[in-house]
């Protein structure tokens, strides 16, 4: 999702934008004094304990941190728990993590105003909130101890869940003081620790709390759910985007043993059975007639051609479609008299390709209301869309939120597509009968959402020193936000983030940056690192080519531009990466190095990749990564995210491409949608720049950097630039 708001923008009350989003989502009247969370939580049954919504402490002193963010492999739950444990001074070995219920009033993302995970915001949006929660709970225990022992509270210390008074020699665990502490009113503005007093945050002690259950198969995913009387559903979706059901013959499907019903829903025809196998067999023999009058007629190839024409100022734009400015300064058409660089870059549609395809369990009616058992990335969106279908209150929709086998943005979309399908089916079944919707890999690849196909065109005139004097930039891509509750009044910045505000543009005297956002019937969605997945490649690969034209070292060329732009954080991470990688030193025979630096989600990442060309194909060995992500809450998890994000981005750079013809997806499984193999995964070294600033995102910032770093290494080895991805086309 989008770049998170600044830490300073976190307020106790809703921002104007949050209010607008909340009211747009519920489509109701704004009540005076009500926040979006108030409106969206009507009907919720959650009770808050003495220590607030994020902390529960048992009689034995075990501390449970209630995690408002989904766990889909990123491991942020450990960092979130550590923030609480640090300020509470809890025993880290006796801290547990539990998934929060769906309740936007209690568990809203402070950057979004609704409950949801995305934009690498889990740690950043929770930083101040959870520190205050932990510090308030600690103050309640010190207050209880001071009263019980008749000593000054200032003399009370807490360490590893034990409250002590050194002068009297008295001490007690959280469990012993629990009743007295729970009776104390928590302070509204508790004193927080200075960074130098941290003993847990920033250490390698902060490790995942779910490794054992995931390793032993005890972790619960939606596909693991089994309930008494549960039915399984699969859906026959239209073969082309925009097509609708015209009619269907279910005669043969109903003959399959185990099939109990066949029904039409808004997105296709569902086959309901007593097992997944029976449902799939029923769908295989289902005869559906599709009305393709409104189907999308174009595909990837036609879109690429049109985008290239429009970016070059050729062809005719559709009605009401116009270029919009994302950055402008001076007169780019007239500035400079030096050498000119021109290039076009093309990026394909990409699937999210999560390890676990989409699935959901829904129960409607039967006196239990509405209940979802699902890995929900955005509980508020899923509540709203479920409530619209079942004519209930969003807050009354209960969600048992489970682990998810990946998302990369896929599980959070404004339509709650797979959740809505399951709810439609469960509503028709009724009686509270649990219905599990299962999407196969092919369903997920063909009926899902994609990273938009995108085209860039740049023209840069250099000054006499070889630096950009004028930069003209055109971007053509579908908007992610248009028509959504979060649609911006101006441009959709997610289409150009990473180019807009780039230090390279800041260092250029004349800039003309414009974006064109055409509409097509192919559904698009944020994909890990969103707009930066293409803008970082264009900016960083272009800069390397400019450095070559100017006869300058790529690292030194960047440092000079960063100095012009006042980009001190970029300078620091680049110098750190260059030092750790040994930039400028001899490399093994056959190895070339490529560098790239990019800021996204509040963090700055520099990578230097060692690459060999083997049989004409780039093979990546060592990747040295430096990151400035503010306070490093969980260094071990930051390193893991750099490794995972690098491999995800490398997969896209080398192999991934979703091809669409006449509105129909061609590649539907990993045999044709080629993803990175274990044997291709590089060794990733991570170096974290020390900082006392608030944390910024780490889940996505590595993903957009590796592609241009590899392309720059290939450029150094062969002299050939990369103007379209993937580098290796099937």
Keywords:
730 residues; alpha+beta; five-stranded mixed beta sheet; 18 helices; 28 strands; 29% helix; 22% strand
Describe the structure.
- There is one protein chain.
- This protein has 730 residues and is α+β, with helices and mostly antiparallel strands.
- It is 29% helix and 22% strand.
Describe the structure concisely.
It contains 18 helices and 28 strands. The strands form eight sheets. It has a seven-stranded mixed β-sheet.
- C-alpha end-to-end distance: 29 Å
Question: What order do the strands of the largest sheet run in, or round the barrel if closed?
Answer: 9-10-7-18-15-16-17
Structural class: alpha+beta
- Percent in strands: 15-25%
C-alpha geometry: globular
What is the secondary structure topology, with strand pairs?
Blueprint: H1 16-26, H2 36-40, E1 55-57, E2 63-67, H3 76-88, E3 95-99, H4 104-107, H5 122-149, E4 156-159, E5 162-165, E6 170-173, H6 174-182, H7 211-215, E7 231-237, E8 244-249, E9 259-265, E10 268-273, H8 276-284, E11 287-291, H9 300-311, E12 324-329, E13 340-347, E14 350-351, E15 359-364, E16 370-374, H10 379-390, E17 398-401, H11 417-429, E18 435-438, H12 441-446, E19 450-451, E20 454-462, E21 468-477, H13 503-506, E22 510-516, H14 532-550, H15 554-565, H16 568-581, E23 591-600, E24 603-614, E25 617-628, H17 635-654, E26 660-661, E27 664-665, E28 683-688, H18 703-718
Parallel strand pairs: 2-3, 7-18, 16-17, 21-22, 25-28
Antiparallel strand pairs: 1-2, 4-5, 5-6, 7-10, 8-11, 9-10, 12-22, 13-20, 14-19, 15-16, 15-18, 20-21, 23-24, 24-25, 26-27
Helix pairs in contact: 3-5, 5-6, 10-11, 14-18, 15-16, 17-18
């Amino acid at each position: 999702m989008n770049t998170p708001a600044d830490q300073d923008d976190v307020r106790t009350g809703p921002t104007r934008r949050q209010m607008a989003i909340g009211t747009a989502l519920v489509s109701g009247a704004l009540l005076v004094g009500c926040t979006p969370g108030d409106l969206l939580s009507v009907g919720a049954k959650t009770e808050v304990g003495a220590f607030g919504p994020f902390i529960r402490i048992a009689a034995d002193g075990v501390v449970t941190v209630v995690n408002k963010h989904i766990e889909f492999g990123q491991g942020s739950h450990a960092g979130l728990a550590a923030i609480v444990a640090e300020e509470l001074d809890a025993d880290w070995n006796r801290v547990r993590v539990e998934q929060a219920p769906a309740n936007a009033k209690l568990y809203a993302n402070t950057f979004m105003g609704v409950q949801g995970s995305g934009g690498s915001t889990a740690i950043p949006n929770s930083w101040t909130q959870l520190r205050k929660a932990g510090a308030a709970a600690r103050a309640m225990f010190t207050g209880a101890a001071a009263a019980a022992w008749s000593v000054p509270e200032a003399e009370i210390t807490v360490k590893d869940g034990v409250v002590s008074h050194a002068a009297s020699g008295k001490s007690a665990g959280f469990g012993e003081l629990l009743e007295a502490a729970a009776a104390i009113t928590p302070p509204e503005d508790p004193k927080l620790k200075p960074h130098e007093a941290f003993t847990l945050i920033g250490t390698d002690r902060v490790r995942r709390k779910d490794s054992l259950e995931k390793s032993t198969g005890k972790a619960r995913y939606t596909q693991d759910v089994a309930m008494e009387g549960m039915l399984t559903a699969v859906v026959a979706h239209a073969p082309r985007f925009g097509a609708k059901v015209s009619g269907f013959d279910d005669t043969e499907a109903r003959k399959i043993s185990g099939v109990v019903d066949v029904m039409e829903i808004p997105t296709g025809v569902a086959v309901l059975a007593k097992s997944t196998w029976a449902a799939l067999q029923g769908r295989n023999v289902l005869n559906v007639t599709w009305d393709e009058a409104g189907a999308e007629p174009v595909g990837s190839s036609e879109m690429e051609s049109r985008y290239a024409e429009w970016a070059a100022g050729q062809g005719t734009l559709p009605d009401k479609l116009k270029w919009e400015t994302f950055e402008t300064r001076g007169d780019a058409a007239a500035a400079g008299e030096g050498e000119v660089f021109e290039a076009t870059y093309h990026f394909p549609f990409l699937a999210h390709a999560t390890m676990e395809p989409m699935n959901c369990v829904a129960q409607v009616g039967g006196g239990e209301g509405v209940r979802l058992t699902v890995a929900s990335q955005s509980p508020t969106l899923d509540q709203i869309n479920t409530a619209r279908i079942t004519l209930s209150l969003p807050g009354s929709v209960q969600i048992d939120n489970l682990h998810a086998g990946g998302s990369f943005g896929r599980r959070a979309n404004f339509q709650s597509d797979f959740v809505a399908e399951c709810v439609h089916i469960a509503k028709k079944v009724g009686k509270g009968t649990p219905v599990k919707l299962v999407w196969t890999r092919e369903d997920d690849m063909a009926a899902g959402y994609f990273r938009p196909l995108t085209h860039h065109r740049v023209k840069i005139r250099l000054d006499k020193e070889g630096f950009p004097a004028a930069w003209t930039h055109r971007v053509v891509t579908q908007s992610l936000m248009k028509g959504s509750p979060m649609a911006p009044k101006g441009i959709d910045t997610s289409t150009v983030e990473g180019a807009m505000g780039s230090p390279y543009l800041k260092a250029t005297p004349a800039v003309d940056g414009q974006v064109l956002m055409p509409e097509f019937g192919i559904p698009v969605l944020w994909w890990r690192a969103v707009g930066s997945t293409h803008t970082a490649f264009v900016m960083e690969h272009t800069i390397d080519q400019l450095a070559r034209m100017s006869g300058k070292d790529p690292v030194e060329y960047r440092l000079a531009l960063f100095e012009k732009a006042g980009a001190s954080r970029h300078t620091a991470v680049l110098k750190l990466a260059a030092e750790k990688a040994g930039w400028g030193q001899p490399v093994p025979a056959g190895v070339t190095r490529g560098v790239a630096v990019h800021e996204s989600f509040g963090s700055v990442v520099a990578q230097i990749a060692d690459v060999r060309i083997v049989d004409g194909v780039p093979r990546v060995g060592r990747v040295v990564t430096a990151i400035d992500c503010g306070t490093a809450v969980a260094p071990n998890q930051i390193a893991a995210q750099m490794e995972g994000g690098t491999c995800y981005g490398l997969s896209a750079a080398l192999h991934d491409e979703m091809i669409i013809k006449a509105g129909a997806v061609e590649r539907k499984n990993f045999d044709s949608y080629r993803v990175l193999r274990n044997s291709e995964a590089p060794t990733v070294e991570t170096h974290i720049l020390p900082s006392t600033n608030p944390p910024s995102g780490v889940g996505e910032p590595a993903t957009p950097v590796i592609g241009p770093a590899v392309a720059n290494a290939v450029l150094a080895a062969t002299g050939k630039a990369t103007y379209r991805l993937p580098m290796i086309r099937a």
